[in-house]
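With this grant's support, we have settled on a layout for protein records. One resulting record is reproduced below.
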Amino acid sequence: MRFRACSALLLLLLLSACATTEPSLGDLEDPNPRFANLQRAAQYPWMDDGHCVVRGASNEWPVLAESCFHALDHDRVKFRDVTGKCAVASAGAAAATMGVGLCVFASPAVVAGAVIVIGTVVVAVAINEGLDAYERRASRERARPEASNKQEPSANRKPIPKNQPDPKGSPEPVSPPIPTPEEKQRWRETCRDHYVACKEFFAGEKQRRVWGESQCQSCMDLCMRDGQWPDEANDHPCPGG
């Protein structure tokens, strides 16, 4: 019982010493600590497929490392106190080994050569799923601004002048020109000539009728509207042009 109490006190002192280690410029806090913790934990072998790490990934690394230290595959991990900050002056052999290992592993800064993994590490299933989920969310976040930029808000779109086609939609129907009385008279004379030629073309044959009027009359109405004899009316040719 006395040995366990001493061991617990020793671990607390060691973790406190590790927490005072100053991180290098390359070890500054990541914008997303959870993602950074998952990336760091992916380097190590875990006995529980990484479930403990995923549950505690939102904590700071020293807290996560302490809570999940038991889940490490200790047969494949070796710890080296390369900085000398985790040295144990006097303690039992078992307590010293565990204390130094936990202190090295929980260090906020990543120290090269401090944690040595034996063999090839396959990323734990739960950790891999957590990293994939983060990447999917990040991709969606990056896609949102692009999608909003592609479609300009309707409030910011410039009004389309009347009778001008909308470049992003179907063109609006163009209103026919409004002729002066003199132009209207010339239109009437020209259209009448084409109308007579249309009647002669059919030469007494029965013309197609829409809404109670003949094909030549439909062509005549379009001519009086636009000022020129049309090529077709009601999806049928207008002879006499």
In short: The first helix runs from residue 2 to 19. The first strand starts at residue 77 and ends at 79. Residues 1-30, 89-97, 166-171 have pLDDT under 50 and may be disordered.
